Amino acid sequence: MSNTLLQQYGPWALIAGGSEGIGLCFARQLAEAGLNLMLLARRPEPLQEAQEELCRDFSVEVRTHAMDLTAADLEEQLEKVTQGIDIGLLIYNAGAIHGAGLFLDEPLQKTRSLIHLNCLGPAIFSHHLGNRMRQRGRGGILLMSSLSGLTGGAYIAAYAATKAFDIILAESLWAELKPFGVHALGLVAGATDTPAMAASGIDFEAGHTMDPAVVANEGLTQLPHGPLHIAGAQNRLGAAILRGEDRRQSVALMSAGTAGLYHLPVPDLSTTDMG
Ligand SMILES: NC(=O)c1ccc[n+]([C@@H]2O[C@H](COP(=O)([O-])OP(=O)(O)OC[C@H]3O[C@@H](n4cnc5c(N)ncnc54)[C@H](OP(=O)(O)O)[C@@H]3O)[C@@H](O)[C@H]2O)c1
After folding, report:
1. Which of 54, 68, 122, 151 has its C-alpha lying 20 to 30 A from 95's C-alpha?
2. Active-site annotation holder among 9, 92, 155, 159
C-alpha cells in the first residue's frame, strides 16, 4: 500500500485533528508510506509530541499548527497554513465526541460548535483543497464519520446529525471527483479507544471497541474505492441493521446503545403511539 499512497496522495497530507487518537494513527501510517504531514489541532503540546515522535521514527517532514477548527476565520487560516505546500490528501478527522445528553438540556452553543466542526469545517477544507486536487488530477479526501451518522438516536442528536452530513458530503464528493482522479471516502467508526472518547465518560466495557490504528488502516486501504466504509466487521453488521428500513427500530437501537455506553436511562419508545 505504501508506494500507492505516496504516488496517489503525496507529497503532503493534511490531517485536521492529527495530534492524537485516530488522527495520530493516520499520521503514523502515512509517514511510514513517505508522505510529509501537516497536522492541525488546538493544543500545542500533543501536536509537538506527535511531531517529535514522527520525525524520530520516519524520514518525512512534519509541520504542525495549533488552531481551532471552529474558528470564524477558518478559510483564511487554512489558506495561510497550506500556502506553498502541495497537499494531495485531506483527512478531516476531528469530530469531537462531547459525551451524551438530551438535546434540549445541552447548551445551544455546543450544537453550534458541532455544526462548525463537523459540517462547516469539512465543507471548507474539501472545497479549498479539493479544488487544488482536481486541478492536478489526483488526490484524496477522507472525512471521518460515525455509526451514529447512520441514524438518529437519543442523547447524541446534534453529533449524529453532523456526522450524517459528513457521510453524504463524502459520498457526493466521491461521485463528483472520481472522473478527475481524486478519491473520496466517508469513514464510519464505531466506539474506538481514543483519548477523546475516554475523556467523554464512555464505558468501554459496555460495548465493542476498536483499536484506532485498525480504523485508520481500514480507511487508507478503502480510500481508493470509496464512497463509504464502515470500519470493523462487527460495526458492519451493526450498520446493516441501523440502515434498515424500519427507522423506529434503528432509532431505538441507537438510543439504547448510547444509553448503555453512558449509563443513561434507555428511552421507552415502545409505549409511544407511532401509528
Ligand atoms: N473515538 C470513537 O469512539 C469514535 C467513534 C465514532 C466516530 N469517531 C470519529 O473519529 C474521529 C476522531 O475521533 P477521536 O475519538 O480521535 O476524537 P476527536 O476529538 O474527534 O479527535 C481528536 C483530534 O482532533 C483534535 N480536535 C478536536 N476538536 C478540535 C477542534 N475544535 N479544533 C482543532 N482540532 C480539534 C484533537 O486535538 P485537540 O483536542 O488538541 O484540539 C485531536 O488531535 C472523529 O471525527 C469522531 O467523530 C470516533
Report:
1. 54
2. 159
CA atoms within 13 A on the CB side of 75: 5
Residue 267 lies in a domain: no
159 is an active site residue: yes
CA dist 97 and 222 (Å) reads: 24
In a domain? residue 271? no
**How sure is the predictor about 273, in pLDDT bands with cuts at 50, 70 and 90?**
low
Closest residue by CA, ligand 1 atom 10: 144
- The ligand 1 site (C-beta within 6 Å) comprises 17-23, 41-43, 46, 68-70, 93-97, 117, 144, 146, 189-192, 194, 196-197
Q: What is the CATH number for 174?
A: 3.40.50.720
Mean pLDDT of 239-262: 92
Active-site residue identified among 92, 155, 163, 178: 163
- C-alpha cell of residue 40: 492541525
Spatial CA neighbour of 208 closest among 160, 163, 266, 147: 147
Q: Which residues contact 257 (CB under 8 A, 6 or more apart)?
A: 153, 207
pLDDT digits over 42-69, tens only? 999 999 999 999 999 999 999 999 999 9
Please indicate whether residue 110 is annotated as part of the active site: no
Domain span at 126: 2-261
